[in-house]
Amino acid sequence: MLKKKLLILFFLALTSLSNFATHIVGGEIYYDCLGGNNYKITLKIYRDCFNGQAPYDDPASIYFFNSSGVLITEVQIPFPGSIQLPVTINNPCFTPPTNICVEEAIYTTTVNLPPIAGGYDITYQRCCRNNTILNIVNPGAVGSTYMAHIPGTGALACNNSPRYNNFPPIFLCSGVPLNFDHSANDPDGDSLYYELCDPFTGLDASCPIVGPQTNTSAGCSVTPPPPPISFIPWQAPYNASYPMSASPAIAVNPVTGMMTGTPNMVGQWVVGVCVREYRNGVLISTNKRDFQFNVVNCPGLPVASIPTQTLFCNGYTVAFTENSINAFSYSWNFGDPTTTADVSSNQTASWTYADSGTYTVTLIINPGTLCADTNWSTFYVYPLLNPNFAIPPGKCIYENSFNFSAAGAFMGNGTFNWNFGANATPSTSNSQNPTDVVYNAPGTYPVTLTIQENGCTRSVTHNVNVYPKPDALYGLQTAIACDLQPVQFIDSSFTTNGPLTYQWFFGDGTTSSEQNPNHSYPAIGSYNSSLIITTTNGCKDTFALPSPIAVYPSPVAGFYVTPKDTSIFYPNVSTFDQSIGSIDCDMYWGDGSMSTNCDTIHHYAKPGTYTLMQVVVNANGCKDTAYSTIIIRPEFLFWIPNAFTPNNNGLNDIFKPVVLGVHDYNFLIFDRWGEKIFETHDMNEGWNGYFKGRLCTNDVFVYKIDFRDDVLNNVHQYIGSVTLVR
After folding, report:
1. Which residues, other chains included, contact 65 with Cβ-Cβ below 8 Å and sequence gap of 6+?
2. Is the pTM of this model over 0.70?
3. pLDDT tens digits along 565-619
4. What string of DSSP letters covers 191-245?
5. CA 529, CA 545: separation in Å to the nearest integer?
6. Average pLDDT of the residues in 664-669
7. Residue 597 neighbours by CB under 8 Å, 6+ apart
8. I need a labelling partner for 195 at 20 to 30 A (CA). Which of 248, 296, 722, 724 fits?
9. CA nearest to 500, candidates 478, 468, 529, 476
């Protein structure tokens, strides 16, 4: 019941084909050499045989031209009758309809053709094709031409042309893969090469036939135009190599003639196939056949399909998948001749072959049922192709030269293709182990190795590093170098490639690895210095000062100080210069002050231990320093008067104690009622007798003073009275 419903749907999909015009749908010419310059000519013509078709030519006129296009002879072959071809479709699960048919008429004749230079071109021309063809512009006005070539004199005389073995299926199901054997045979055993090609056009609708039936009253010629013949006008986007809508596209195996592809649009399509005949590498003739495919919808058809192989040179284990239509069971045969265990009933499977080779894999879907379908696919098994190469260590730009060696998994018989990049010389190589590759600039460069082997291509890319040369440079902190005094070397080297290591040569037999060393020269003289810097990648550069370092004598600092130990009550210290060879002398007293005279006296304001520093300079600018330590011992003193007269006469106007050697000082004044009228923490500030801007009256006031002494840091407090006399 299900099959009946599917057939009804199938017939409905085909009803539009009944409107196709009944015209020529294909043909070919081939010949056999009978000896004695006699040739049997065979013309096969295919046409629609439904709905009042035009009759076959009776006779069919065949014309023979020389290589210059001159007509040599013509023959008329009587109509031999025709047969109806089986209505085939590319899936046996359905029966093709009976209201569509194709007839075949085979015309034969024998003709004597003496050898001539360039041979003969045999032609048969006719009009026209079906109006409903989709891949030709104005198809109802486009004719057909079928040709064959007979070689001329020489070794190729008495040749037999190739002829096709099978006529393609009349119907193709849309979405169903096509696997049709379009091969030919050649009686001479010549080499055959297959390809899709452009069909020839032919006569047009105004003069559809030549020969005895020619309508000369309409101005039609009794002979056809000579070769070369124009090709059919393709309707974009179709052409000889893509003649019809299909995915994968229709293709012909050049060696086997197997035609494959999956049509995906309903309609009529013209396809041209050529078989070229070669002998000892020389092209003898070409048999061009065109035919018409009728693509229809076939709902529910089971279609066995094996995806085209995409992985090559991936080792001996191959994974198999299927993209069949309406499949519910599976039967795989992996084509391994070494065993009978190379089968599987799983939907997807894998097989490990014993060796590389070419294997025909078979998939049957729905085996043992009416709707079984079979698909074959050729798989090419090669060893794992996995190229690699060792990454050479990086090199410095001034000495870079790289060697490479192909490694990894490959058989060694593959167009090694190295690409080193535009900055390399050479930039490419076809050697397995290229050497002496040099880069013209620092950088990180991708190197790609591509190996092509057994039709497979694999690539691997690694980076090589070319390191920049660093720039060594340094100077001196001061232009003057003095004996027994350190010379400061200042590095200003530059690199873009990580930290540097340093090797200094001072010219006196000593070295250093510091970045900015200082060095004391042991004697007066001239010294040549230099620096070698090295990056982490081993790249080096050297720099030397253009002039030697001149080392001058230094002065000798010295001074005498007195006293070295004294009280804060006697804080004056004297110094006497005792330096030798100096022209300038500076004294630094250790309390933040200095003097440009080293024979002088300095007053210390606070007790403490002070380090004195003398700096002397000679005429060459060389310096020396001397040091001495003094002690100003802390002592404290407190005394306060008991009266004062704030009358602005300059005598006894301010009331304040006398204190020395103290800290944390506080001084307060209170009136007789206990109100605070004055406060200070400055030992040099006293009370002027005023409160709130007015001079106080004669009276007795209370003072309170506290502080810590500098000797033992003890707290002292004094409370007493003072009399203000105006």
Report:
1. 71, 72, 120, 121, 123, 226, 227
2. no
3. 998 888 999 999 999 999 999 999 999 999 999 999 999 988 899 999 999 999 9
4. EEEEEE-PPB----TTS---STT--GGGT--SSPPPSSPPBP-BPTT--SSS-S-
5. 6
6. 96
7. 585, 587
8. 296
9. 468
